[in-house]
Amino acid sequence: MGTLTSQTRTIHRQEDEAGLDVRVESALPPRLAVGRGNALVVWGSCFHRRQRIRELRVGVRGREAPAVAHAMPRPDLFAALHPTLNLPLAAPIERDDDSEEDPLLMSYRSGFWAITPFEPIDEPTSADLFVTARLEDGASAGTSVGQIELAPGPLQGAIATRNDGASEPLVGICMATYNPPVDLFRRQVESIRSQTHANWICVVSDDDSAPARFAEMQRILDGDPRFVVSRSPCRLGYYHNFERALSLTPPSAAYVTLADQDDRWHPEKLEALLRHLGDANLVYSDARIVDRDGRLLSNTYWSRRRNNYVNLASLLVANTVTGAASLFRRELLELVLPFPPRHGSPYHDHWLALVALASGRIDYVDRPLYDYVQHQDAAIGHARANAAGPRPSGGMGRLRRLVREPRSTWAAWQGIYFWEVCRGLQFATVLERRCGDRMSPRKRRAVRLFVDSEHSPRGMAWLCLRRARRLAGRNETLGAERALLRGIAWRWAVGLMARRGLLAGGFYGDASVPPRPTEPGTGPVTRHVGTRRG
After folding, report:
1. Sign of CA dihedral 360, 365, 371, 376
2. SS3 call for 110
3. To 10 degrees, the CA torsion angle through 43, 44, 50, 52?
4. Whole-angstrom distance, CA of residue 466 vs CA of residue 474
């Protein structure tokens, strides 16, 4: 295997003797925890030097799944392979060239992306990631593009603790920290210590905070055995740091809850959530919104949108369940862990809520049980989570914006598709594998319609019709369907251009993956983490 290095990515390239050229541009994790099924978003380019590709499949050898899209335009690769060839705008690509790598100009229609599923395994194993193409003449060509070490479940070890003689069930509190403001961290710790439900243990997973800040945290927790601190050896980002915290939950804990590093719990928070859980998988509460000095900003989290904890389709489109407000049964971790590998900007509480609702029921306590602190360093704030999109200006207004600012509009739609639509497809794929046998027919249909919205008229029609829900006051998604539809529109438009042989260059006919977004509130994450060492 060779590698080609560009300004923005490292490309892992394979060629087979039959003339198949495959370049995987997504970072393949060296190790991946599978659990009860997982999925990885894979993208790159693939073309055959002598024939067109009719179907492309990507996955573990022998169990490849159809690519979400292939034969998409890649003028960047085409230009790299044919630096002396200057095709006019919108010219059909039907001429020969002297490039040995691409003599028939097949590289222009070579972009692909796929949601690659992984089935459950019983013991660690090594798997070849394989790309297989069915060609015009009916023959198949394929090649391995890399190896991934697969593990049955999360690689972290749960923290051992004793619960002898306790009259109350043990609650495992999972806190994820990274350079917390010391005053807010101290206040949060004291609010946990003040809980009326006294049988708890708090696991603090620190995401490689600065040494001085970490020392301050240890001083605050010193002498209290109910707090167990585990420091990650490398920077994970908040999504996978919460995964790490959950994987450390003590086996004796009957219930699990999440804690942010800078909020303030009301004394009865744990007691009230336990009392209201009933037969639900998960229960969560409302929150007061305050600034870092404790001044009240809102008496409720739901000041701008409707709450939702029963409609799985709406929850797939936009999350409404806040992790810091939640408490759930420990058994749910068997389905929640490991998290799907990070793609785009996923949220731990969104994944947790989807699994809880897909596999059972969620309940809600309609009163604030903690103060949600809003400040500059917060990863995602109340205002942002409740912010509606730009006010609709009608079809002509959107068309004028597209004409005035075509590059930025097109790039925004492209980013929505790759980082939001594809992340939703990844979540839905894993959800079907882990919870399919527990979902009601209505929930299974909702997940399938969400997946179909990317490639079928029926699915797109369903997504369009969902926008009308806001007319009945059902604004729990804040119009997120509109953004998803724009991303899907980009996907179909750029595919149509490729099929017509248009634009061997330029931003309209480019299906390369845009730069990966930065995790909110964390800065760049240095490593793609499906699972972790240590």
Report:
1. positive
2. strand
3. 40
4. 10
pTM score, two decimals?
A: 0.89
Burial tier of 356 (Cβ tally within 10 Å: 0-12, 13-18, 19+)? buried
**Phi/psi-derived region of residue 473, left when phi > 0, alpha when psi is between -120 and 50, beta in every other case:** left
User: Burial of 59 by CB count in 10 Å (0-12 exposed, 13-18 middle, 19+ buried)?
Assistant: buried
Domains defined for the chain, CATH in brackets: 2-151 (2.60.40), 171-385 (3.90.550.10), 394-489 (no CATH)
Cα separation, 169 vs 155, in Å, equals 26
CA–CA gap between residue 172 and residue 253 (Å, rounded)? 5
Report the mean per-residue pLDDT for the chain. Answer: 86
Question: Which residues, in sequence order, are bridge partners of residue 126?
Answer: 149
pLDDT (tens digit, 9 = 90+) per residue, 218-243?
A: 999 998 999 999 999 999 999 999 99
> Under DSSP, is residue 19 helix (H, G, I), strand (E, B) or coil?
coil
Q: Output the six-digit token pair for 427.
A: 């979540």
E strand or H helix at 270: helix 269-277
Q: Which residues pair with 22 in a beta bridge?
A: 14, 46
DSSP strands (E only) in 157-254: 171-177, 200-206, 227-231
State how far Cα 374 lies from the chain centre: 24
Amino acid at 4: L
Tokens of 441: 């027919």
pLDDT digits (tens, 9 = 90+) for 94-140: 444 556 788 888 998 999 999 999 999 999 999 999 999 999 999 99
| Residue 258: half-sphere exposure toward Cβ, Cα within 13 Å | 30
Output DSSP code: residue 371. Answer: E
Residues 6+ apart with CB under 8 A from 193: 224, 226
Maximum distance among all alpha carbons in the chain? 81
Give the Cα separation of 342 and 525 in Å (integer). Answer: 11
Residues 114, 127: Cα–Cα separation, whole Å: 17
Identify residue 268 by its one-letter amino acid code.
E
What is the distance between the alpha carbons of residues 463 and 424, in angstroms, rounded to a whole number? 13
Q: How far apart are CA 356 and CA 339, in angstroms?
A: 13
Is the distance from CB of 285 to CB of 368 less than 8 angstroms? yes
Distance CA 337, CA 317 (A): 21
Rounded Cα distance between 510 and 526, Å, is: 27
Phi, psi of 465 (to 5 degrees): -65, -30
